[in-house]
Amino acid sequence: MFVASLAHTPEQCFGRKEYAAEGKRWAGELKSSAKKLGVKVHGAHVCTNEHTFYFVLESNDYKAVSELLGPPMLTHSSGRISPVVSIEEAFGLSFVKARAGSDRRTPLKSAELEFPPVFCVSSDVQGIRGSA
Length: 132
Hints:
Elements: E1 2-7, H1 17-37, E2 40-47, E3 52-58, H2 62-68, H3 73-76, E4 78-83, H4 87-92, H5 94-103
Antiparallel strand pairs: 1-3, 1-4, 2-3
Helix pairs in contact: 1-2
């Protein structure tokens, strides 16, 4: 699982006339490109005021994620693609268990957590828009 944030300047925004067609084409092909690359899109959103895209992507292949977010996205934006695990998985890591156990009499068990495995808002990839 990966969380990606891609920030661009107002001058590089897909909402600008000179980039709108390129941005719409990329957004329109996102689902089919992801499927072809073996990437599942759990969320694709944009904060228009901040000129930042956010993605929640599932893949075992970082290269596929990078390719999905490649040009034009990474040529217009500064990107951060971070591998993430669910809260339950994080508390299952040996070094986390050791720290949790040192503060408590017994380590935390995943059954004690009330978090869902993955949290994300709806993924309306058709609704991706930039702003000028």
